[in-house]
């Protein structure tokens, strides 16, 4: 745990379509905001290194790629998440009401080891807009009732609180990860990549 | 909500099995506008993985509706353990968080007595495959995952050993050069013979007719191996374990299978095989994600009722699909064989032999080893009319089951029915007594499920050229046929286009703001964000 080995945190962002999940991610990682993404390539996941308590942490932030639109996120998306960010749009009360079911869905699909203490963070996005419909108080109350989930009011467009929120996300995910490392009996996962493509490293390519 | 579903697409894909998902990804990747549907609430169709609860629901669903023509039949499920644990809950199962804080090595010295209730409580930790398969480390699927960059969505584990059934017991098969030299089961003379023979197999080239094997076209692989002077033990290893064959296996087929095995050695681990983390059911989802990232629209829980080909005024044909009282239109419909409406299929059924399968959940591995093993076991046929049986044993490290358990899959071609075909093999490696306290050199079987699956892997031509039917899972060990068929379907829909070119890494994605462009298109505020 105290090892200096590289830490990779998988963070997934959930919430109704159009609340600004992709924009938040893009603002945090690329410091950019766009009203329109290149139509052919949607959001996948973005990676950013952050420093938490002198440790370098790589955050891998996974977007839903639009599969949430018709409730069609597969269980594979949720695998191995270290933190879950739930986003709603402060101008759209329905998206706030959905938080509960997104949280439940996450707990069912990801089935974290310790659901009671799994790190969630709630973001009320689009606070730059005039037509606010969900008050900060109401959002805070809900978060408190759910085992004190941290709550931030953000604007991906104007970069309000985005950095701060993701710092908290990294910190809380790391705390979870540190605990999880205790039980990590199964390293040795293999990621396929082209580096060893066809390469015959130890001369043991075929038994001849 | 469903009414938001757009209705016009270039390609509509129905069914999220392996072949359909690869086609969906390939079409979306080159810019086709894709809608991907599935009638059930999860991905994978016949290729899905289920947690324990999902598996129970699936069994119930199939058994409750015998009239619907399920490709799965003869399901027979059996428990070998008590419903509730008889002794009072002592330590582990009550509080999961606490359990994990104790030192596991201590807990494991005392074997847990499992009850059905434990399975129910930990149902989420199971990922049980309907179509368990391995990947050859240098096989077409691994190459495709890497070249398309879809590999970033998946994780794998190496199969740690290959076993066979030799002289009435389990025996490890030497896989690598180091293994061959280290093994005491093979003498030095045999080793030389084996190496020579394997060298000629690796040199085998299908196109080149003037080769070592030119006179072996109509003979069996066993005859070839015997001719090469291999001893019975070596013939067993090569024929049954490496080639996965039987005495009747044609020579060239055996050579091809062996070559595939040998060519995949030495890339990732000690054996030529990889197993996907959380099971084979993850792989279709990886392709679906790529499809979605490139704009594909996903809608599960969306059965289709009817498919018609309509001719428009200009003579242009479209496929019109009725689904939940909505009409969806497309130029090309790609549909999994299990979701395809009958009117689109040829009336003459294709003749195939079906598949017998079984899933066993046990309290230990079939052959203890230092680290948790991941095993491929190949049985030669034990009866005259039987076929070779493939066994895959996966443990908790693969995300397939809770700690202390193993999931073991059996697969063979059907002769009679799954239970009669496979029970005798299972009896050789498991203890079915159900008595978890009694000493035994075999792992105890706690749960078993036998079932048959229609072999729907033969390509079927639909009655309309715009409708492309995707084959179901085959009996084979790997995904090679699925990849091949997906590519063929794609080529028909998008002739001349590249099949799954490399997707850019997220860092390479250029957002609109980075490029010079005209004035921004004014959009309504509530649409900002989530790009589709």
Automatic annotation (TrEMBL), chain A:
This protein's record includes keyword Transmembrane helix: no
Subcellular location per the Swiss-Prot or TrEMBL entry: Late endosome membrane
GO terms, molecular function: GTP binding
Source taxon at top rank: Eukaryota
GO cellular component assignments: late endosome membrane
UniProt keywords, alphabetically: GTP-binding, Lipoprotein, Nucleotide-binding, Prenylation
Pfam family, one: Ras
Family: Belongs to the small GTPase superfamily. Rab family.
NCBIfam families recorded: small_GTP
Protein name (record): Rab7
From TrEMBL, chain B:
InterPro entries given in the database record: FAD/NAD-bd_sf (IPR036188), GDP_dissociation_inhibitor (IPR018203), Rab_escort (IPR001738)
Pfam families reported in the protein's UniProt record: GDI
Top-level taxonomic group: Eukaryota
Key words of the record: Cytoplasm, GTPase activation
Region Disordered, annotated ranges: 83-109, 513-532
Basic and acidic residues compositional bias, start-end: 514-526
Entry's localization field: Cytoplasm
Chief place where the protein resides: cytoplasm
Family under the similarity heading: Belongs to the Rab GDI family.
Alphabetized PANTHER family for the sequence: CHM, RAB ESCORT PROTEIN 1, RAB GDP-DISSOCIATION INHIBITOR
Annotated function: Substrate-binding subunit (component A) of the Rab geranylgeranyltransferase (GGTase) complex. Binds unprenylated Rab proteins and presents the substrate peptide to the catalytic component B. The component A is thought to be regenerated by transferring its prenylated Rab back to the donor membrane.
Protein name: Rab proteins geranylgeranyltransferase component A
